[in-house]
Each structure stands twice: as structure tokens, then as C-alpha cells.
Amino acid sequence: MVLWYNHDESEVSLLVRPIYIIPRDSGVLRARSTRVRSVREGSAVIQDLIDTWPTVAAHGIAAPQIGVNRRLFVYRPYEDEDDVPPTGLMNPKIIKASGEVMDFDGCLSVPGLYGQTRRAERIVVSADASDGTPVRLKFEGFTARIVQHEIDHLEGVLFIDRLDTVDDLYTVAEEVPEEGEGGEPKLVRVPLTDEARGLILREQRPIPGHALHW
User: Fold this and answer.
1) pLDDT tens profile 51-98
2) Which domain, by its residues, includes 32?
3) Whole-angstrom Cα distance, residue 163 to residue 196?
4) Hey, which residues are catalytic here?
5) For residues 154 and 69, what is the distance between their CA atoms, to the nearest angstrom?
6) Which CATH number do you get for residue 171?
7) Is 157 inside a domain boundary?
8) Among 112, 103, 91, CA closest to 144
């Protein structure tokens, strides 16, 4: 069941939220999010994201992924240990981007599919911390990729929009050694089925002017 967030600031919900996925929830995922109106509102959504965090395997979760079109997300730097809690940022804006790198991408809202996308290698972000304090943060490497991915969600952009080609996408499957060969099972890349390829082609969108270009 899909639950919608109640924006009434008199109610603070501490709930694990379902993750919105395409194509079922494309209307929400493709909408451009609006600014967080108050620290109280933002803190409530951040708490929902933090509550949801242990139920998924991700480097970040953006508010639209739990049905809330507000400009905030939680993330954990790539270098941090798994037991480090995620950090919330409200009303983030990339004010500087440089370099370019092609690397791994995937998304809870596009489940089971992975690929390579081009993103800026280094970024500078202005935002409000979860307590409303203005911050300016520098990111590079894979953490910069994580933050760009989450900010894309706030612009209605999915990683599939940044692919050079749909042929870059793949799924993974466990390959078990033949009897007598020994060794451990390993994950291998599997090309998309025609059905999955068709879905992605239907769901891709041009990068809008308000999203990051560098």
C-alpha cells in the first residue's frame, strides 16, 4: 500500500515509508519538488527517511522516493562505515560543478537495474542542515555522485535519464559453480530483457533545464 505524507505541521509521523518506483509512481517521481517550508516540516520528513533507511540498501534516499515532493534528502558519505547514521539536507542547490566521471549508478525507484552514468567529479552545495543552519559543503568522488543522484530526484530526474545508451543498463544474477568446480557463488551481469528495455525507453525523459548541466 502506498502511503502519502501528511503535510500538516501539527502532526509528526515516525514511520517506515514505502519506496516509490517507476512506472507505478512516475507522477510523483517526475515532479519537481518545492522548497521545505519550515524546519519542523523538514525534520519530520527527514525522520521518516531515517526510519526507512534500515529497510533498504542505499547510499541515499530523497523525499520524492517516499511520496513527498519537498527539496530534501538523506545520505551517507561513501567512505563512512555502515553503522554511521545518514545526514539530512534541506533545500540543497549545486552552486559549482567541475570535472566529469563515468561510474556506477542505480536507484531504489528503478529496482534491479544498474548502469553507468556521467556525473560531475566535484561539486559545491549550499543547503540547510536538518536544524535549519545554512551550510556550504564540498563533495568529490563517489560521495559527489551520491549527492548529485539525490538532488536529481528533487528535479524529477532519474539516473536512467543520464545514460549514454540503454545498452549500458544491466541486471545481476547469482552464478553458482557447477558441481565439482568448487568456489563461491558470484554475481554476474545480465543484459536487459526486451520487456525491461521497453519500460526504460518509455520512462526516460530529457534532462530539464533546471537540473544540473556542467
Assistant:
1) 999 999 999 999 999 999 999 999 999 999 888 999 999 999 999 999
2) 26-203
3) 15
4) 150
5) 7
6) 3.90.45.10
7) yes
8) 103
